[in-house]
Amino acid sequence: MEREWTVEESVPVAASPDAVYAALSDPRRMREWSPELFAVWVRDRGETAEGTRFVGFNRLRWRIWFTNCEVTAAIPGRAFAFRVTSFGMPVALWGYRIEGIGEDAASTRLAEYWQDLRRDSRTARPVSLLGRVFTGVPAERRAELNRRGMRATLDRIRASLEATAAPRS
Phi and psi dihedrals of 21, rounded to 5? Predict the structure, then answer.
Protein backbone atom coordinates (compact mmCIF):
# COMPACT_ATOMS: atom_id res chain seq x y z
CA MET A 1 0.00 0.00 0.00
CA GLU A 2 1.42 3.36 -1.03
CA ARG A 3 1.39 5.99 1.68
CA GLU A 4 -0.92 8.99 1.20
CA TRP A 5 0.59 12.30 2.23
CA THR A 6 -2.42 14.53 1.55
CA VAL A 7 -6.15 13.97 2.03
CA GLU A 8 -9.05 16.27 1.16
CA GLU A 9 -12.82 15.99 1.52
CA SER A 10 -15.54 18.55 0.87
CA VAL A 11 -19.26 19.15 1.35
CA PRO A 12 -21.78 21.79 0.32
CA VAL A 13 -23.16 23.76 3.27
CA ALA A 14 -26.35 25.83 3.27
CA ALA A 15 -24.70 28.73 5.10
CA SER A 16 -22.75 31.78 3.99
CA PRO A 17 -18.94 31.66 3.68
CA ASP A 18 -18.74 34.20 6.52
CA ALA A 19 -20.87 32.01 8.81
CA VAL A 20 -18.78 28.96 7.97
CA TYR A 21 -15.54 30.84 8.66
CA ALA A 22 -16.88 32.26 11.94
CA ALA A 23 -17.54 28.74 13.21
CA LEU A 24 -14.24 27.26 12.02
CA SER A 25 -12.03 30.10 13.20
CA ASP A 26 -12.79 29.31 16.85
CA PRO A 27 -10.63 26.23 17.54
CA ARG A 28 -12.64 25.50 20.70
CA ARG A 29 -15.67 24.62 18.55
CA MET A 30 -13.82 21.81 16.77
CA ARG A 31 -14.51 19.46 19.69
CA GLU A 32 -18.21 19.64 18.72
CA TRP A 33 -17.44 18.09 15.34
CA SER A 34 -14.22 16.07 15.39
CA PRO A 35 -14.34 12.35 16.19
CA GLU A 36 -10.87 12.55 17.84
CA LEU A 37 -10.57 15.98 19.43
CA PHE A 38 -12.24 16.30 22.83
CA ALA A 39 -10.77 19.52 24.26
CA VAL A 40 -8.90 22.63 23.16
CA TRP A 41 -6.91 25.14 25.14
CA VAL A 42 -6.28 28.40 23.27
CA ARG A 43 -3.09 30.08 24.48
CA ASP A 44 -3.71 33.48 22.94
CA ARG A 45 -6.72 35.54 23.92
CA GLY A 46 -8.81 37.59 21.56
CA GLU A 47 -9.77 36.97 17.98
CA THR A 48 -8.12 34.05 16.20
CA ALA A 49 -5.49 35.23 13.73
CA GLU A 50 -2.33 33.95 12.09
CA GLY A 51 0.05 33.05 14.89
CA THR A 52 -2.68 32.10 17.41
CA ARG A 53 -1.53 29.02 19.28
CA PHE A 54 -3.63 26.28 20.82
CA VAL A 55 -3.31 22.79 22.24
CA GLY A 56 -5.61 20.03 21.00
CA PHE A 57 -6.41 17.06 23.24
CA ASN A 58 -7.31 13.94 21.29
CA ARG A 59 -8.71 10.52 22.02
CA LEU A 60 -8.82 7.35 19.96
CA ARG A 61 -10.35 4.46 21.87
CA TRP A 62 -8.45 4.39 25.19
CA ARG A 63 -5.46 6.39 23.97
CA ILE A 64 -5.18 10.10 24.78
CA TRP A 65 -2.59 12.56 23.43
CA PHE A 66 -2.12 16.28 22.80
CA THR A 67 -0.67 18.32 19.98
CA ASN A 68 0.52 21.91 19.75
CA CYS A 69 -1.01 23.94 16.96
CA GLU A 70 -0.40 27.35 15.38
CA VAL A 71 -2.79 29.09 13.02
CA THR A 72 -1.11 29.64 9.64
CA ALA A 73 -4.07 31.09 7.70
CA ALA A 74 -7.05 33.05 8.98
CA ILE A 75 -8.76 34.70 6.03
CA PRO A 76 -12.41 35.54 6.84
CA GLY A 77 -14.86 33.84 4.51
CA ARG A 78 -12.08 32.02 2.62
CA ALA A 79 -9.58 29.93 4.61
CA PHE A 80 -8.51 28.69 8.02
CA ALA A 81 -5.46 26.46 8.59
CA PHE A 82 -3.09 25.41 11.34
CA ARG A 83 0.21 23.56 11.66
CA VAL A 84 0.44 20.69 14.17
CA THR A 85 3.61 19.76 16.04
CA SER A 86 4.47 17.22 18.69
CA PHE A 87 7.38 17.97 21.01
CA GLY A 88 8.45 20.67 18.55
CA MET A 89 8.53 18.30 15.56
CA PRO A 90 6.28 18.90 12.52
CA VAL A 91 3.36 16.48 12.24
CA ALA A 92 0.71 17.87 9.91
CA LEU A 93 -1.00 20.82 8.33
CA TRP A 94 -4.80 20.92 8.69
CA GLY A 95 -6.95 23.42 6.89
CA TYR A 96 -10.28 24.48 5.49
CA ARG A 97 -11.07 26.19 2.20
CA ILE A 98 -14.34 28.07 2.09
CA GLU A 99 -15.88 29.02 -1.23
CA GLY A 100 -19.24 30.57 -2.01
CA ILE A 101 -21.13 28.52 -4.61
CA GLY A 102 -23.93 29.48 -6.95
CA GLU A 103 -25.67 32.80 -6.97
CA ASP A 104 -27.06 32.23 -3.50
CA ALA A 105 -24.90 34.04 -0.93
CA ALA A 106 -25.95 31.41 1.61
CA SER A 107 -24.31 28.41 -0.08
CA THR A 108 -20.75 27.34 0.53
CA ARG A 109 -18.41 24.54 -0.50
CA LEU A 110 -16.36 23.62 2.56
CA ALA A 111 -13.20 21.58 1.97
CA GLU A 112 -11.10 20.12 4.77
CA TYR A 113 -7.56 19.01 4.02
CA TRP A 114 -4.70 17.36 5.84
CA GLN A 115 -1.06 17.16 4.81
CA ASP A 116 1.33 14.79 6.55
CA LEU A 117 4.55 16.68 7.36
CA ARG A 118 6.39 13.62 8.68
CA ARG A 119 8.72 13.21 5.73
CA ASP A 120 11.94 14.50 4.28
CA SER A 121 13.36 15.70 7.59
CA ARG A 122 15.52 14.38 10.40
CA THR A 123 12.46 14.38 12.70
CA ALA A 124 10.20 12.31 10.40
CA ARG A 125 11.07 8.95 11.93
CA PRO A 126 10.92 9.98 15.62
CA VAL A 127 7.61 11.85 15.26
CA SER A 128 6.12 8.95 13.29
CA LEU A 129 7.16 6.58 16.09
CA LEU A 130 5.67 8.92 18.72
CA GLY A 131 2.46 9.06 16.69
CA ARG A 132 2.18 5.30 16.69
CA VAL A 133 2.94 5.03 20.41
CA PHE A 134 0.42 7.72 21.43
CA THR A 135 -2.37 7.04 18.92
CA GLY A 136 -1.90 3.37 18.11
CA VAL A 137 -2.03 4.26 14.40
CA PRO A 138 1.01 3.70 12.18
CA ALA A 139 1.87 6.69 9.98
CA GLU A 140 1.00 4.64 6.88
CA ARG A 141 -2.63 4.32 8.07
CA ARG A 142 -3.11 7.89 9.31
CA ALA A 143 -4.44 9.20 5.97
CA GLU A 144 -7.14 6.52 5.84
CA LEU A 145 -8.23 7.28 9.40
CA ASN A 146 -8.20 11.03 8.75
CA ARG A 147 -10.33 10.64 5.61
CA ARG A 148 -13.05 8.91 7.68
CA GLY A 149 -12.69 11.52 10.40
CA MET A 150 -12.95 14.37 7.89
CA ARG A 151 -16.18 12.98 6.48
CA ALA A 152 -17.66 12.78 9.98
CA THR A 153 -16.35 16.25 10.89
CA LEU A 154 -17.68 17.88 7.71
CA ASP A 155 -21.09 16.23 8.13
CA ARG A 156 -21.27 17.50 11.71
CA ILE A 157 -20.18 21.02 10.74
CA ARG A 158 -22.77 21.09 7.97
CA ALA A 159 -25.55 19.85 10.29
CA SER A 160 -24.61 22.37 12.98
CA LEU A 161 -24.43 25.36 10.64
CA GLU A 162 -27.55 24.43 8.70
CA ALA A 163 -29.50 23.97 11.93
CA THR A 164 -28.36 27.42 13.05
CA ALA A 165 -29.18 28.98 9.67
CA ALA A 166 -32.61 27.30 9.38
CA PRO A 167 -35.52 29.71 9.69
CA ARG A 168 -37.34 29.47 12.99
CA SER A 169 -41.05 28.79 12.86
Answer: -60, -45
Q: Which amino acid appears at position 35 of this protein?
A: P
Contact 30, 160 (CB under 8 A): no
Q: What is the C-alpha to C-alpha distance for residues 10 and 38, in angstroms, rounded to an integer?
A: 22
Q: How many helices (H) and strands (E) does the chain have?
A: 3, 7
Contacts of 37 (CB under 8 A, 6+ apart): 30, 31, 56, 57, 58
Confidence (pTM): 0.89
Q: 11 pLDDT exceeds 80?
A: yes
Backbone angles phi, psi at 71, to 5 degrees: -65, 130
Give the tens place of pLDDT for each residue, 37-53. 999 999 877 789 999 99
